[in-house]
Design a protein that fits this description.
The protein is an alpha/beta fold and 325 residues long. Helix content is 34%, strand content 26%. Helix 7 (138-144) crosses helix 8 (146-153).
Length: 325
């Protein structure tokens, strides 16, 4: 009984993972904006020189901590320990912690932190690893991205997102593929990550014994490798972008690069537009809309990130800068 009390007094931590563009930020925004009366501390990790994920996260009341030195599972683990240590000193101000990893992260070293670091383990408990999977692109990513496979295998809860983009037969095949990697995880089918928050938060679902079966060295401090051929490039225009130049350019870019452009996203200041334009893309699929107004104390800066293989950095840089108003 005393052990149960000790465990219940620890702050729950949800690790939110999933490959580039699967919908992690969409799910995070749903969690933060729903009327649940709870307060969350959010730790986001961005792969690239200019982090914009914290700007894509809604919820002015939440505290967002950004780690921006690459892979969350390498040097950033020290940042994770430091941030959680700081949060513990303010316990009572929030109900849970959410760690959103970069799409290129293996979730195992993140989860390891809660077992390998004594101070963290004594005050926080890993509640669940929640993986968002892209129903349209998951099978392709499982072939060429070891991180995607690990994200599925380590999940306690799998949110199979974008189910509206595939037919019933393809969806059934994707689910069979997932079950070969992880037969035990709870699986939810979603469109735009629409599901009850109770399905992903406060699940008390992390099963160490199951993880040790698939990764016997989980509790050992092993070195991590990730896809070295994937590169991130970030660009910033200090001022407005002309939408009549930008939209045709980015649509042409995504069509030409196709499978090599894994992900693109950005927050842009459009000429003569008081609201921020947020765009996100996965391969040749693009989505964007106008969101909140630029604040009076906020510089109108247009930022974009492109992640993929065999990308011509200079050509993309020139193309983006040519869209300046």
């Amino acid at each position: 009984m005393s052990e149960q009390i000790a465990t219940s007094s620890k702050i729950p931590v949800t690790v939110l993972t999933g490959y580039l563009g699967a919908g992690k930020t969409t799910l995070l925004n749903r969690i933060l904006s729903e009327d649940h009366g709870k307060k969350y501390a959010v730790i986001v990790n961005e792969f690239g020189e200019i982090g914009i994920d914290n700007d894509l996260v809604v919820g002015a009341d939440e505290e967002v901590f950004e780690m921006n030195n690459g892979c969350i599972c390498c040097t950033v683990r020290g940042d994770l320990i430091r941030i959680i240590d700081g949060l513990m000193k303010r316990k009572g101000k929030f109900d849970a912690i959410i760690v959103e990893t970069t799409g290129l992260a293996d979730p195992a070293p993140v989860a390891q932190t809660f077992f390998m670091d004594q101070d963290v383990g004594e005050r926080a408990r890993l509640d669940a690893v929640v993986t968002v999977a892209d129903a349209k692109w998951l099978r392709d990513r499982l072939k060429d991205a070891p991180e995607a496979k690990n994200q599925i295998a380590f999940a306690d809860v799998i949110v199979l997102n974008k189910t509206d983009l595939v037919g019933p037969e393809e969806l059934a095949e994707v689910e069979r593929t997932i079950r070969t990697l992880n037969p035990g995880a709870t699986l939810h089918r979603t469109t735009r990550c629409a599901l009850p928050i109770a399905d992903v938060m406060d699940r008390n679902a992390f099963d160490l014994d199951r993880i040790l079966e698939i990764a016997p060295d989980f509790l050992e401090d092993t070195h991590h490798h990730h896809a070295e051929d994937v590169r991130s490039m970030s660009f910033e225009i200090r001022g407005d972008v002309d939408p009549e130049k930008f939209m045709p350019w980015v649509q042409d870019l995504t069509q030409r690069l196709g499978g090599d452009l894994l992900r693109c996203k950005g927050i842009l200041a459009f000429k003569n537009e008081p609201r921020r334009f947020v765009f996100q893309g996965v391969h040749m699929l693009l989505d964007g809309d106008l969101q909140r107004d630029w604040r009076a104390d906020e510089a109108r800066v247009s930022r974009a990130v492109f992640i993929g293989r065999n990308l011509d950095r200079e050509a993309i840089r020139k193309g983006f800068f040519a869209t300046a108003a």
